[in-house]
Amino acid sequence: MIRRYSCLTLMLAAACVPREQYVEEKPQEFCLSENLRSQLVLDTLSERYVTQHITLTGEVSYNPDKVVRFVSWVEGLVMQTHFSLGDFVKQGQVLATLKSPELHTLLAEKKSLESQRKLAERKLESAKGLYTDQIASDRDLVEATYELEKLEADLANLDANLALFHPNPAQGVFEIRSPASGYIVEKNINTGMPINDGDNLFTVSGLDDVWVMANVYATDMQFVQQGMDVEIRTLAYPGEIFHGRISALPQVFDSDERVLKARIVIPNEGLKLKPGMSADIAVARRTGETAIALPTDAVIFDDNQYFAVVYGGACDLQLRRISLVARDNRWCFVGEGLKAGECVITENHLLIYEKIKG
Questions:
Q1: 297-303: which pairs have CB atoms within 8 A and are 24 or more residues apart?
Q2: Could you give the CA distance from residue 314 to residue 347 in angstroms, rounded to a whole number?
Q3: Sign, CA torsion 309/310/315/316
Q4: Is the pLDDT higher at 357 or at 13?
Q5: What is the pLDDT of residues 173-207, one digit of tens each?
Q6: What are the b/e assignments for 181-199, b being 16+ CB within 10 Å?
Q7: How confident is the model at residue 311 (pLDDT cuts 50, 70, 90)?
Q8: Nearest 5°: phi and psi at 334?
Q9: Domains (ranges, CATH) in the chain?
């Protein structure tokens, strides 16, 4: 009886307990506020080719096809320069004047050759007359002709050499003129400086397009091929991307740096890229497979797992755990957890993630 009473007592006591203490309360549905909804940035998912980005180091260089180096073939003293490093110059513009004792020697030699040519012309006319009168032989006529032709060739060669420096006999100097239009990218002369035969005085280059030389190490060779599109970034222009394509990939390693020098030719709009400027080159490698591409900004990493916030409406927000198969600088490629056509939140998603997670 005591045991039955005890059980009955317990049952009555339980019946008196309020029913709501045993009902599990569901969490309230989370809806975005009007203010937060206006700040959202969404991205609609789609399939893309799975790519991986390899970042190479490199340097901006001149286009050798547009580089002209002016090498001196005389000795002398620079009297005056009319340009500075980086200046734009036009073809034929006087860049410097050079005083050289060779100018007087060359002018004297030219005067002598001109005198000899006049004498040779008279000898040839005389030989022709004698040959007509059958006094001179064929040999005499040939020798007179050859002598004149040789003097004319020597004089033409001397004039060509003088033309390189455009002599100004009145001032006793050579005028060094720009052989092409472009920018002075190298300058090795200054006023009062002595120069020697063979010295490189200056270099003129066009900068309308430039080369970017990328260093491809042996570990990256299998991923880099000729014809690949690349993205180029520089410290001088943060956030700006220059697009190009690998136009040449040599099969021989650079002997000094032990790398392959991949060549990327790109137009230099606004002359932003300067020779000698360092650059980072991102090469995209396609695997041939496709997967759902999720912007990297939309991925949330928490507790060693990856998540995304799927948006179906202001009150329809889902947390999805996702698995990644690959990633690059812009995209994460998802193996499971998302479908094409769904929308994900790419900004303010961390705040929403914390509110939903609770």
A1: 297/346, 297/347, 298/43, 298/332, 298/344, 298/345, 298/346, 298/349, 299/324, 299/332, 300/349, 300/350, 300/353, 302/353
A2: 15
A3: negative
A4: 357
A5: 888 888 889 999 889 999 999 998 889 999 998 88
A6: ebbbbbbebeeeeebeeeb
A7: very high
A8: -100, 130
A9: 34-50+289-357 (2.40.420.20), 54-65+207-287 (2.40.30.170), 67-205 (2.40.50.100)
pLDDT score of 358: 67
Taking residue 288's Cβ as centre, other Cβ atoms within 10 Å add up to 6
On whether the CB atoms of residues 203 and 188 are closer than 8 A, the answer is: no
Q: Which residues pair with 46 in a beta bridge?
A: 293
Give me Rg for the CA atoms of the chain: 41
74 vs 63, 116, 156, 167, CA distance in Å? 28, 25, 18, 12
Q: What is the pLDDT of residue 303?
A: 86
Task: Give residues with Cβ within 8 angstroms of 354, minimum separation 6.
Answer: none
Six-digit token string for 75: 């000795």
Tens digits of residue pLDDT in 206-248: 888 999 999 998 878 877 889 888 999 999 998 899 999 999 9
